[in-house]
Design brief:
By secondary structure, chain A is mainly α. Chain A has nine helices and no strands. The longest helix of chain B has 23 residues. Chain B contains nine helices and no strands. The chains are: A mainly alpha (213), B mainly alpha (174). At the A-B interface, α1 and α2 of A face α2, α3, α4, α6 and α7 of B.
């Protein structure tokens, strides 16, 4: 087939354009998060005194903010990565926001509670649930985001998949954090990253195979 | 401007744009491959792959951004795919340069031949549709009338066929 003939075929197909990738991703994230939220409300739900805790418990509110500080920058990064002309730039630093906040939280925690309670606070009561439920709650957003990315054209498919994994874990972890009774930043820093690591690695693996175009 | 009209579904504007882009791309790919010693057919092969990708991924272009960097990013990706398809690593390709000088012989038409093969891998009806519209220059309306299909069905078949062409390129690169 000659190039000019191909162009004729492409022009004849001009009306087949898909919705803008940014919109597709936003809808996918919204739908995935909603699905997880529904499952979460039916199976676990937030702590019963959720609204009261938001105004009274600094630690509880803080851990929710940390989780959102992962999910929100990850969303914008995934959106950038879905385009072929994305260049890794300063926006990657937003991923450091959550670890930085968490380090600050740890420092404040260590300064404000007696040293003999550090260990108990770090180990907590729900580490096993934390490590397993976060990936489960991440699953719906994960599938939705990776599927939406398939309609994109990422120059870095592995990284796009990995950040998609971070985003889905951010959503799952935000939900789980509202349920978990362990509020110490020490607990959050030790156990939550396990769920994030699982979803990030999964995203990189799926991305490297599934997101080539 | 043209791309904005094209994304809005304007066939004529889109065709003009693709024609202009294909000339630009030919130069870019040829220059990019200059040091690697790639045959003329391979350049055209990559140009077609880029045009297909521009077409199937045009919803990833942000109208608020300039078109150039987006096109060049796609071109770069497809040039790398093109080298992979030739079964060589970009870094050792320069050593193979002398073999490619013989590249005028029929052996290098292999990729052009593959496009024919891809076309022949389509169902009879889809191949008929693609060839009528591309090579014979008929409109989707005419093809629909001739085959007793609706125009929408012809457009869907055309779109599917273009996707399988792009997939075929991608499979060969992996």
């Amino acid at each position: 087939m000659k190039t000019d003939d191909l162009i004729k075929a492409l022009a004849a197909d001009a009306k087949s354009v898909e919705p803008p990738i940014a919109r597709t991703l936003a809808i996918a994230v919204g739908a995935g998060a909603l699905l997880s939220l529904i499952g979460f409300m039916m199976a676990l739900g937030p702590r019963p005194d959720f609204f009261e805790l938001l105004s009274t418990s600094v630690r509880y509110t803080f851990k929710l903010i940390v989780m959102l500080s992962v999910a929100i920058p990850a969303f914008f990064l995934v959106r950038g990565l879905s385009r072929p002309d994305f260049k890794p730039d300063g926006s990657l630093w937003w991923l450091a926001l959550a670890p930085a906040l968490l380090l600050l939280g740890i420092a404040l925690e260590l300064a404000s509670v007696p040293a003999d309670t550090w260990h108990a606070r770090m180990i907590g009561h729900n580490s096993f649930y934390c490590m397993t439920i976060i990936p489960i709650l991440s699953l719906a957003p994960f599938v939705a985001v990776l599927y939406a990315l398939k309609s994109g054209a990422p120059t870095y498919p592995t990284i796009a998949g990995a950040i998609g994994g971070v985003l889905s874990a951010g959503i799952g972890a935000t939900l789980y954090a509202s349920h978990c009774p362990d509020d110490s930043p020490l607990f959050v820093a030790l156990w939550y990253p396990v769920g994030f690591a699982v979803m990030t690695i999964l995203g990189a693996l799926v991305g490297s195979r599934f997101l080539r175009w | 401007m043209l791309m904005r009209a094209a994304v809005a579904g304007d066939e004529a504007a889109y065709r003009v744009l693709l024609e202009q882009l294909s000339q630009l791309l030919r130069g870019v790919v040829r220059r990019g491959f200059a040091g690697v010693g790639v045959a003329r057919d391979d350049v055209e092969d990559v140009v077609q792959d880029v045009l297909l990708a521009i077409h199937l991924k045009r919803h990833t272009w942000d109208p608020a951004m300039p078109l150039g960097p987006w096109v060049l990013a796609i071109t770069r990706n497809k040039m790398i795919d093109g080298l992979r398809r030739r079964g060589r690593r970009p870094e050792i390709a320069i050593d193979l340069q002398q073999f490619d000088i013989e590249g005028e012989d029929p052996q290098t038409s292999i990729d052009a031949y593959d496009v024919q093969r891809v076309l022949s891998s389509l169902s009879d009806r889809n191949r008929d549709i693609v060839q009528s519209i591309s090579i014979d220059g008929h409109s989707a309306r005419d093809v629909a009338d001739r085959l007793g299909m609706t125009e929408v069905a012809v457009r869907v078949a055309l779109h599917r066929s273009l996707k399988s062409l792009a997939d075929m390129y991608q499979e060969k690169a992996e």
